[in-house]
Design a protein that fits this description.
alpha+beta, 7 strands, two-stranded antiparallel ribbon, five-stranded mixed β-sheet, Trna Endonuclease, Chain: A, domain 1, about 140 residues
Length: about 140
């Protein structure tokens, strides 16, 4: 499939994630439009609420901390990014690379601190702003 615009990837990613949580019997509230502050979805089950930040990708990577890099090293940028998320926020990474139009994308859930640990490991522990997933 040809590369499509990032706005469309963001909307599609949110729709897939909302559908999966609903299928798992979570109540889902959607903030319409991609790139909402901190989270895109609120999901609730058994009176427990999570904020879900959805990040879509079609190339095997997610740029996550680059806006915090200016004047900071990669580790500090990752720490600042983690600090921008509340304790009830999870990150949902959606990967469309090598996924046909009628296929389900690969979807991963992680805590912001878990992602920061991975970002800091890149390039012999120098770090990076982009999370990569080998397909």
């Amino acid at each position: 499939m040809d590369k499509i615009g990032s706005w469309y990837i963001g909307i599609a990613a949110e729709a897939f994630v909302a559908g999966l949580f609903a299928r798992c019997e979570y109540k889902v509230s959607v903030q319409y439009g991609a790139n909402q502050p901190e989270y895109d979805l609120l999901v609730e089950k058994d009176d427990k609420i999570m904020k879900v930040s959805v990040k879509g990708s079609q190339d095997g990577s997610w740029g996550l901390t680059q806006s915090f890099k200016k004047g900071n090293n990669y580790h500090t940028a990752a720490d600042i990014w983690v600090g921008r998320h509340g304790e009830k926020t999870v990150i949902c990474l959606v990967q469309f690379k090598n996924v046909g139009l009628a296929e389900m994308p690969r979807i991963y859930l992680a805590l912001p601190c878990e992602i920061a640990i991975e970002l800091k490991k890149y390039r012999n522990n120098i770090g990076d702003t982009i999370l990569y997933r080998q397909i």
